[in-house]
Amino acid sequence: MDKHTRRIICTSFANGKRHDFRLFKESRVRAKPSTIFKTDTGYLGIKKIHANSILPIKRKPKQELTKEEKCFNRQVSSDRVLNENTIGFVKRFKIMADKYRNRRKRFGLRFNLIAGIANFELIP
Fold this sequence. Notes:
By secondary structure, the protein is mostly helical. The chain has helices at residues 20-27, 46-49, 67-91, 107-122; strands at 37-38, 53-54. It has one domain (20-122). α2 (46-49) links the parallel β1 and β2. It is globular. The two termini are 15 Å apart.
């Protein structure tokens, strides 16, 4: 997603259960080095692929986060709210929420059409 235009820029999907970061690596998305990726803790190895990435800080075992770390995590999560809201909007179409029972060939086309609807609906 683009934070400023609130548009879905790129979609990627796989057959069956696949971790988000593995799907990202396999999609081979090209991004400018100046692009900032704000992700959740599921993308722990993304710094090796894209240096300009921002991840929340994970708590170490038997150790609490400091106030600064909690504040940083809160800022990262508040920036990611737009992404999560858009995912929720797309799930209302039930293409991602339920088992897809139509032809697999047309899944990409239908998903991108829903992303287009989301882009049209969510733009203020």
